[in-house]
Amino acid sequence: MDHHGEEEDPKEYRWETGYEKTWEAIKEDDDGLLDGAIADIIQKAKRKRQAQKTMQNKLGMMRHLYLMLDCSESMSVPDLKPTRLLCTLKLLEKFIEEFFDQNPISQMGLIVLKGKRAEKVTELTGTAKLHLKALDGLHKINLVGEPSLQNGLDLALKTLKVVPSHASREVLIIMGSLTTCDPIDINITIDALKQESIRCSVISLSAEIHVCRHLTQQTGGTYGAVLDDSHYRDQLLSHVDPPPAAQTQENSLIKMGFPHARQDEGKEKDPPLSMCMCHIENADEPSKITSAGFHCPQCHSKYCELPVECQTCGLTLVSAPHLARSYHHLFPVQNFTELVYNGQAAICYACQKPLTEATDKNVYRCEACSQIFCLDCDIFIHETLHTCVGCVTIPGAAAQVHARKPQAPPMGMLLGSSLGQRF
Amino acid sequence: MEKAAAENDDSGSVSLLVIVLDTNPSQRIVRQNPDNLSQCLDATVAFGNAHLMQKAQNKLAVISCHHHATDFLYPMPVKQLEVRQVDGQYEVFSLVEKTVKQRLSHIITNAPKITQPNESLLAGSMSMALCYVARMQRNAQPGVKIHSRILVLTGSNECASQYMTYMNVFFTAQKLGIVIDVCALDKSLSLLQQGCDITGGQYLRLTQLDGLLQYLLWVFLPDPKTRQMLVLPPPTKVDYRAACFCHREMIDIGYVCSVCLSIFCKFSPICTTCHTVFKVPGPLPPKPKKKKKV
Ligand SMILES: [Zn+2]
Ligand SMILES: [Zn+2]
Ligand SMILES: [Zn+2]
Ligand SMILES: [Zn+2]
Ligand SMILES: [Zn+2]
Ligand SMILES: [Zn+2]
């Protein structure tokens, strides 16, 4: 086979610059350059999760998650590069962005464990920016002493106990230490968490810790010990997907407000100037007096960004596409079938990449539309696009896809411009 | 090596334009006058070449959305057409024209006959465009930033059945930093307009094909950064409220199912989308007066 397939052959540049790839570029690369065995483990885990996803229908879409980060001495170990802490902070940045992207009306809070104490760094909130800022501040934290799992869990429990019963309650613990220093029997705390249906998951950066595994088993969470940084990334990002709804979770209809258009200054007939509520108590960025913003339909308080809970009347304010952002959780794309490549198709149906036995060990077939995809597209379709390209471009298959989805009102479900500005 | 040293900051960026051209014969403008399709095609090719002409590193892809399938018109996936090797870059331009026209006539000749108007699966074609862009971005040499946009040229009506696919496409484009531009050649398109808004693209509706190329060059040729400095058609006002699933009516306060996030204008004990039975609201919200319906 010849390979002047591409409009331009990138290979001649590749060998010149390949070795210059930075660490970060390698990180983003996800699979291409990983150690084969670990890449395999990650890929298998992904497909397994995908298969589980298509089987469950009730998810805890409104999540309240405490992220609990070990900041004890053990986090300074350089087995993850450059250190456990710095590697974690970098991955958490990505995690936080993805979390709010995929869970548009959820809340998160951050707890730090060090010197046998637990400290709340951010309260439960739906604003990614606050967490990212707090995360940034942790780069210079002193890593001292031992963590206390129990103190951390008790702190999370106190807040999660009182969140509305229709929301999922979760704790995700990142443990570097092999030990925990707890004031009393931790089983008392574990029982209380179980009682309140708080799902606790642990990612251990060292070896398996018995008490952590016990905690996850008792509360219905997941337990994982990481093999390397890419495996860590995968473990962490698996928590972006909403967990199955807890049995005790109450389903309800929640009253929400959809604020009117944000008006740009200068356009229309001058709207009155006003102050926003979100920045009113923020000393760093004081509230600006403008005519733009989102107004609570119930009490007319103004906010710069959505989603937000109105500080005056308590109404949750969102925009319709914010909600649409997570509808794909309800209609996941079925897993594709992994096939050994033997000429099933000349090119990948989605990205047009020429398939060859040398470069494509496996290809992937959608059982609904029978199209063949490359590995990269299999991942992209299931993790990002949430739409099988074959199923939505071939009229017969498309009709079936459309039949199972909630239909759009021709004029409705309209826009929130905040979407473009969230990060 | 020396070439690399002399690089200015501009050469580290590549602009990739993917044009999604609606070639469905069901479009009103095509049914009325089949020549309109050739006119759109000529404008597309000329516009694509104008994009390539702006900078040597620029890239182009053209996708046709036909009534039975979505196909790449340019570039060819494996082997490019033979164009007489003439020195200089102009051979690229004739390559684009030759490839696009040859591929499209092949598609049209081999397409099944249509007996009734078929919708254009534009959202699907856009999803294919995204996979292509994602591949180009994955394959980019380190240090090269690819600025990608998708231009949709269509005279079709909007199909609400593709709503979920459109939303998935818009959010994916936003996430990847891909701008969606839309040129509507017949009816106004509210869903695609949302895509432009979400991704920071430009929406333009033309009521006639005269001067199509001039409009394309004026509105869509400048990259999104440059556009801010130009006088472009004013944005159309968009509505930000939600429509309830039950009556498709615009509401500013509604009830959202905690399981599937469907939106309703009134409290009801069961979700019509996911069939979840709700707990009757507790003492906090005042109990709605029971209206007996006959
Ligand atoms: Zn504000
Ligand atoms: Zn309010
Ligand atoms: Zn592919
Ligand atoms: Zn499919
Ligand atoms: Zn209604
Ligand atoms: Zn529902």
From TrEMBL, chain A:
This entry's Gene Ontology molecular function terms read: zinc ion binding
Q: Keywords, A to Z?
A: DNA damage, DNA repair, Metal-binding, Nucleus, Transcription, Transcription regulation, Zinc, Zinc-finger
Q: Where are the zinc fingers (C4-type)?
A: 296-313
Chief site of localization: nucleus
Q: Name one GO biological process term.
A: DNA-templated transcription
Residue span(s) of domain VWFA? 64-240
Q: Name one GO cellular component term.
A: transcription factor TFIIH core complex
Q: Which Pfam family, any one, appears in the UniProt record?
A: C1_4
Entry keyword annotation includes Metal-binding: yes
UniProt-annotated location(s): Nucleus
Q: Which residues form the C2H2-type domain?
A: 364-387
UniProt keyword annotation of Chaperone present = no
Q: Which PANTHER family match?
A: GENERAL TRANSCRIPTION FACTOR IIH SUBUNIT 2 (PTHR12695), GENERAL TRANSCRIPTION FACTOR IIH SUBUNIT 2-RELATED (PTHR12695:SF2)
Hey, which family's this protein in?
Belongs to the GTF2H2 family.
The protein here is known as General transcription factor IIH subunit
User: What organism is this sequence from?
Assistant: Musca domestica
From TrEMBL, chain B:
One matching Pfam family is Tfb4
Q: What does this protein do?
A: Component of the general transcription and DNA repair factor IIH (TFIIH) core complex, which is involved in general and transcription-coupled nucleotide excision repair (NER) of damaged DNA and, when complexed to CAK, in RNA transcription by RNA polymerase II. In NER, TFIIH acts by opening DNA around the lesion to allow the excision of the damaged oligonucleotide and its replacement by a new DNA fragment. In transcription, TFIIH has an essential role in transcription initiation.
A single Gene Ontology CC annotation of this entry is: transcription factor TFIIH core complex
Species assigned in the record: Musca domestica (House fly)
What keywords is this UniProt entry annotated with? DNA damage, DNA repair, Metal-binding, Nucleus, Transcription, Transcription regulation, Zinc, Zinc-finger
Q: What is this protein called?
A: General transcription factor IIH subunit 3
Q: Which GO terms describe its biological process?
A: nucleotide-excision repair; regulation of DNA-templated transcription
Binding partners and assembly: Part of a TFIID-containing RNA polymerase II pre-initiation complex that is composed of TBP and at least GTF2A1, GTF2A2, GTF2E1, GTF2E2, GTF2F1, GTF2H2, GTF2H3, GTF2H4, GTF2H5, GTF2B, TCEA1, ERCC2, ERCC3, TAF1, TAF2, TAF3, TAF4, TAF5, TAF6, TAF7, TAF8, TAF9, TAF10, TAF11, TAF12 and TAF13. Component of the 7-subunit TFIIH core complex composed of XPB/ERCC3, XPD/ERCC2, GTF2H1, GTF2H2, GTF2H3, GTF2H4 and GTF2H5, which is active in NER.
Q: Which family does it belong to?
A: Belongs to the TFB4 family.
Q: Provide the taxonomic classification.
A: Eukaryota, Metazoa, Ecdysozoa, Arthropoda, Hexapoda
Q: Which Gene3D superfamilies match?
A: von Willebrand factor, type A domain (3.40.50.410)
